[in-house]
Amino acid sequence: MAAAQLSMEARTGRSNQRYGTQGERLVAGVVPLSSDKYYVLLIQSTRRGGWVLPKGGWETDEATAQDAAKREAWEEAGIICKITYDLGLIPERRKPDQLTAQAPKAAYHFFEGTVEKQEAQWPEMHKRARQWMTFSQATQALADRPELLDALNRCTMHR
C-alpha cells in the first residue's frame, strides 16, 4: 500500500466483508515486528480494552488477504509494514460465550510484517493505544485470545 493510497478514514461496516464456505467471517491480520525482531506492536481492543494484534475483515475489493492485513495495520495501528512471512490460516478458537453479533465466528489469516514506518497520526488513533512489547509481555497480553497467541507463536520474533 503506497503512502499516497493511505486514507485517514477507517473502513466501517460489513457490507463488503468476505465470508467462508461455513459462513465464517474472513479476517486478515498482521504480527508487526520491530526490525530487530525483539518487539511486537500490540493495539488496544476497542470492544474489551485488552491488547490485540491488528486485524480485521478481508473485503471484496481487496485482491488478497495480505492487502487486507496491511490496510488493517495502517487503520488500527498507524504502521506501514513489509510483509515477510505468511503465517497461515488459524481457525476460530474463541469460546461460544466470546462470540457476539459484533464479533461473530471468524477464520483468521495472519502475516508477519516488519514495521517500516510508524506514523504519529492514523485513522483509529483516537480510539486505540499502541504499545511495543517483548514476546513474554505479548504472550501474557494475548493470553485470553488463543487465535492471536497462535499467530504470535508462529512468528519469527526472538523469544
Would you write up a description of this structure?
The protein is of the alpha+beta class. It is built from three helices and seven strands, in the order ββββαβββαα. A four-stranded mixed beta sheet has the order 4-1-6-5, sandwiched between helices. A three-stranded antiparallel beta sheet has the order 3-2-7. It is globular.
What distinguishing features does this structure have?
endopolyphosphatase activity, NUDIX_hydrolase-like_dom_sf, four-stranded mixed beta sheet, bis(5'-adenosyl)-pentaphosphatase activity, 7 strands, three-stranded antiparallel beta sheet, magnesium, hydrolase
Walk me through the topology.
Layout: E1 25-33, E2 40-44, E3 51-52, E4 55-57, H1 65-77, E5 79-90, E6 106-118, E7 130-133, H2 135-141, H3 146-154
Cofactor: Mg(2+)
GO molecular function: bis(5'-adenosyl)-hexaphosphatase activity; bis(5'-adenosyl)-pentaphosphatase activity; diphosphoinositol-polyphosphate diphosphatase activity; endopolyphosphatase activity; metal ion binding
Protein name: NUDIX hydrolase
